[in-house]
Design goal:
Oligomer: homodimer
Helix content of chain A: 25-40%
Structural class of chain A: alpha+beta
Number of helices of chain A: 4
Distance between the termini of chain A: 27 Å
Largest sheet of chain A: 7 strands, antiparallel
């Protein structure tokens, strides 16, 4: 891991993805925090992201809807826990609104954007409450899914 | 409820305590956020609170240790989610540190301090992730325990 990475990694409960993106941190952060940008990359194509409502501040809620190629919609609600412009973004599905517990607290996502000579060392550390949930997430295709959307994110960020 | 109360109450999963405290909001907020004050009222006597380490900001951790009359210590770790000086304080045991999931996310506590003619309308809204956890908490003596410590809090706050 890069030395800038802030958290301890729990091998039993966490999943992690890291990538060097050929764009400045500001662009990658914008792609995660501006709804019209997020809609362009968030779902793995040919899925789409028709709705992105995002109150990007600690304690702000979000609603992101993904749509399958068949037209089925999957709403995801969460709350931002930490926002450090161009550096860090943390959110969780443990709340559907501030501070309404969700049906099932599944994950907390800790994103870090670190400058490496004008490029971005992008790291997504995904914490789960249980080892079983980590396994479920891995088996749902975490690495393939987040890998593909990170490709889409990188392409968009480098075009801004 | 007072009109200043910000959250919807979920009758299935929440517990609530409200009290008019004869002290200004500033004093009640201080009693919740200054370690040397918190230690004086937090545990229901004859229990005590020998340790209170509190990083009172959104994403800050706390460690509060309660000690039984027999000398057994019970550490409680959590993270603050929202801090609005003299108005609101929100914390949860869903994390033991930012952003390490706890073994069991049990509750999120939303405290509101509202001025009523120089006194404080104090409300503790305790959200649980499940109805079963609400029942457990009620059967553990939520109303008696929080009632007694709120007496202790009120006494301290009015003496400041």
């Amino acid at each position: 891991m890069t030395t800038s990475f802030p958290s301890t990694i729990d091998a039993e409960r966490d999943l992690i993805l890291t990538r060097l993106i050929d764009a400045p941190c500001e662009n990658v952060f914008r792609a995660w925090t501006e709804p019209e940008l997020l809609k362009q990359w968030f779902a793995p194509l040919p899925w789409t992201t028709p709705v992105a409502e995002m109150d990007v501040r600690p304690g702000g809620a979000n609603l992101i809807v993904m749509r399958s190629p068949e037209g089925e919609e999957y709403p995801n609600r969460g709350v931002y826990l930490e926002v450090v412009k161009n550096r860090r973004l943390v959110f969780t599905d443990a709340y559907t609104a501030p501070w309404t517990p969700s049906e099932k607290p599944f994950m907390t996502v800790e994103l870090t954007f670190a400058d490496e000579g004008g490029k971005t060392r992008y790291t997504a550390l995904v914490h789960h409450w249980t080892a079983a949930d980590r396994t479920t997430h891995a088996e749902m295709g975490f690495h393939e899914g987040w890998g593909q959307t990170t490709d889409q994110l990188a392409k968009l960020a480098s075009s801004l």
